[in-house]
Each structure stands twice: as structure tokens, then as C-alpha cells.
Fold Trehalase.
Amino acid sequence: MIMRIEDYALIGDMQSGALVGRDGSIDWLCLPRFDSPACFAALLGDEANGHWLIGPASPGRDRPMATRRRYRGDTLILETEWDTPTGTVRLIDFMPPRHTAPDVVRIVEGVAGSVAMNMELRVRFDYGRIVPWARRVDGHLHAVGGPDSVWLSSPVEVVGRGLAHRARFTVSQGHRLPFVLAWHPSHESLPPLPDAFTQLTDTELEWAQWMSRFRYSGRWRDEVARSAITLKALTYDPTGAIVAAPTTSLPEDIGGVRNWDYRYCWLRDATMTLEALLTCGYADEARAWREWLLRTIAGRPQDLQIMYGLAGERRLFEWEADWLAGYEGSQPVRIGNAAVNQLQLDVYGEVMSALHLAAEAGLEPDPHAWAIERKLLDFLESNWQEPDEGLWEVRGPRRQFVHSKVMAWTAFDRAVRLVDELGRRGPVAKWRELRDRIHAEVCEKGFDPERNTFTGAYGSRELDAALLIIPQTGFLPPDDPRVIGTIEAVQRELMRDGFVLRYPTEGGTVDGLPGHEGAFLACSFWLVEALTMIGRRDEAVELFERLLDLRNDVGLYSEEYDPRYKRLVGNFPQAFSHVPMIHAACALSGTIRRGSIVRC
Ligand SMILES: OC[C@H]1O[C@H](O[C@H]2O[C@H](CO)[C@@H](O)[C@H](O)[C@H]2O)[C@H](O)[C@@H](O)[C@@H]1O
């Protein structure tokens, strides 16, 4: 039975996240952190790599798929329901706010009639490789393997057989049966196991409190709220870091090699996430992230990395988990990310832009932050002319990417504005001069007057959908003919089946990789925003609504959409898709952002 990426929903506790399938199986869970080894890795292999199924018993091999699913209101508590010939059953899944150990709580609730249920637990530590020793301790199931151990607590009798633990039980209307799985280091004794029902109330309350700060009043309120909740779920609470996605190696090209590990904090993705959360009223997250940034990049500016681990770790060595077959055979499964060593000049602009926005939104100034910003600008001053790998992290040769230069312009522009508008002190005349120099160079070398479009790299003919952000940065006004020409060129050359590719992948000339990929959702949302900015609102609304239709049944996006198979592809759920969705909704709702105080 193929589980499509859109068949999964996310639960999480702002330290890690699990993917729950429409069949009631948790097929992905890394503990204790997003970037820890998975103890359920069936997503990238099969059941033998670890999963935790709870669903109606069925006579055949195929598991019953849920009749409907939803999140309980504005929370990350998932409700999966099955209508069966004998009754209706609901499975409530969530990860409560973390106190000591991380827990996954699953409550089976009889809604009508009675339903025979099946539970199967296969814990496989170390990304599906280690079969743990299991034993009963104080009435709980305890599984241990290497540094990891988990405890399963439930009033339902669980029996071990064939390297799995199973239970058969019946739930009738009005009955609720809890299962609690807690992780902890194997050298420690049993952590306090929480009461499932108290945890349910607490988790609901926690989300209600978080949502009480939600400040978006435009159209598509529920869709924007779901994206904001998803972004919050991707933040790593103890440090303020934000992961790009909670998964690794969900393929951009099903069956292909474009499989990457996203369980880290990219400066680019995190700053964009931060801007979206600020847009929705969340200043605390911005403050926490700024502190993470200051701690993480402390040191010499030339040592700045484009991504870090959740606590600021710098070594994210990339390796392949060759025992995993990969999602629908997409190999390799990569752990770690070699892009960590790349030069991506755009991140300087993204960091400066986010810090400028945070300052405008009223985040109190931090003298250390400004000192670091100045160091970053010093580095950029000597390096902005270098070729780089660009925001798409190409694995081919470095190039003079136009988007990178536009973002270098953005970095100096925001520095100038921080001095002029917000009273920071610095060599503003020099920054102004650099800003103007970069502007002139981009307009001369990065623009193709024949086709009336900016190009992907200096002197190239290829287009890059990242150029759609030019009007958002303020590099040129929206009504500049070069901006309009670029938007129209992207529409002409990079649209497939109504959505936008980030660049042409034919021949692997841009990214140096074999195979194709789907439409990059962020680029399609950037097109919505760009069309709105140039006054083509109807077209923008039409595209935005088409993009809304790509969300799965619980409102989640992966990184890309493959029009060939009409499926979501790439890591899931992906911050880089939910962020521009929020910005596009703001733009269409006519609320103010981009270079001005954010108020939605
Ligand atoms: O396509 C090749 C690259 O794909 C990944 O990068 C993409 O995801 C990043 C995280 O969301 C995003 O910041 C970047 O802009 C995207 O291109 C992967 O992480 C890279 O290793 C890979 O080269």
C-alpha cells in the first residue's frame, strides 16, 4: 500500500515531530530531537525499520485508511477517524509540551458502535537498524538499544511476538483507551509517565495560549493559522532554532537521488520563518531566534555557515544510511547535509533583512546583535563579488548568481536603513556606496535587455524563479519594466501545469544533479506576491487558490509539487513552503509588509 507524502500529518512538541499516516501508523519519529536518529523509520523503508500502528483491525493485508482527519481546532492535536461497518472510532495523537522526557500520546476513543482495533509497535533505534531488547518493568513495556530506550504504558494488554509488540482490543462508544510512549536515555531510570488525559488538556491549553497572540486578520484566516502553527511546530524550543523540515530524504524526484536532510537550521529558511511569525504577531520567537543566532555565529565572520545544528552545532557531516531502501526506492537516504560548507551570499541579506524587520516591529535593540551585523557586513564587503552556490545550494560549480547579488544589495540597504531610520551607528556612506555599486553591476551584468528579464547568473540565458523576490526586497519598484519583464519571463519559461519551477533542471546544468524535480512551492507563492505587487490581482488570487488546493487534508505542504504524478514531493512539512504562503496571503489581503512595519 503506497502512502503518499500527503497521507501524513505532523504531531510535535517543539523539540521533535512525528509523521502519522492515514492508516494510523507513525512512520517517522526522531527522539529526543528533530535531528536525532529515528526510532520509527518506516517512512524511508518498511515496517521492519520501525513504526507504531493503531487502527481498525482488518481481515485483509491492506490497512483501513481513515475516513477523515483534522487537527483539533487551532492545535497540533490530530484526530483520525474511521467509519467501519460496526462503528466509528477516533484516534487522538499528540506530543505534549515537554517536561522531562519526550512523549507520544495516543488515545483511542469509541465514537459510535464498537470497533475491533489493532496495535503494532516495532521500535527500531538508529534509523531503523537496531532491534531493541524488550522486557516488562513495573507493568510497562521497556525497550532498550544502545543509548536509547522507550517505555510504553497502557491499560491495554500488549504481547510480544515476531520482533514486534501487538494488541487486539475492542473500543465501544464512550470508551477511551490511552497509550503513552516515552523516550529517555537508556542509562537513566523510568521517567515520570504522564497521564494521557491530563496531557491532552494541557496541550490544548498551551496551543490556545499560543494562538491568543495570533494577529492575522486578512482573508484565508484558517489556512494562515495552520501554516503559522506548522512553523511553530518546526521551532526547537530549548534554543530558538528553526528546522527547515522534520524529515530527511523525502525525494524531490520520486525514485531519484534528490534526497536531502532538512532537520537543521538554515539561516535562510529560519530568517524567512521568523519574518512570517513576526507577521502573525509572534515577537517572542523572533527574540529567541536572534539569541540563537548571536550564540551560534559567534566567532570570526568568515566562519559563518549557511546552516547549523539545533544548538548551533557546526559539523553536519553528510552520510548515507544504506540499510534504508528510501521512500518509494528513492536512494540514497542522506543524514547530515554537505551544503553546510557552501558559500551562499544571499544569507547575509536574509539575516540583515530579518533583523531589520524585527527592529521595525519593535524588538528591543541588542548591542551585540548590531556588532555582529557590522562584522557580517565587513565580510560581505570583501566577498560580495565572489561566485557562490546560491540559495538553491547547487552542487555544480559556483556561479555569479543574480539572486545572491540582489540579496547582497539587500544587506547593505537594510544596514543603511537601520542607521537612517532606527538610529544605529555605522559607516553609512560606505554602505550606501556599496549598495549603489552592487545595484549598478546587477543591472548591467544580470539583465538580458533582449529578453527584458534578469537572468539566473551573470551572462547566462537561464532563468531563476528566485528573481521574483526582486520587488519584495525594494531593489527595484514593482512597476519597473525590468521587474515586469522578469515576472513575465518566469511565467513563460518556468511554469509547468500552472506552477513554477525554480530553474530548468533539464540537462542538470544549473544544479549539477541527474533527474528532474517538481514545481517549487515557494516560487509559486513568490509569483502570487509579485503579481499582486504589479497590480495583477485576479491572476494572483487564481494562482493562490490553486496552491491552496495542493495542501493535504490537514493543511500541510511539502517542498514541491510534482505535476507529473499530481503528488506532493520533497521533505514534509516544509517551512520554506508555509512561509511564502503566509506572505502571499498578507499581500493579497492588502496588509502592509516588506520594508515597513509588519501589521497583518
Ligand atoms: O536541490 C539541491 C539542494 O536541496 C536542498 O536545499 C534546498 O533546501 C534548503 C532547505 O529548505 C533550502 O534552504 C535551499 O534553498 C533548497 O535548495 C539541500 O539541503 C541541499 O543540500 C541540496 O544541495
About this structure: The longest strand covers residues 103-122.
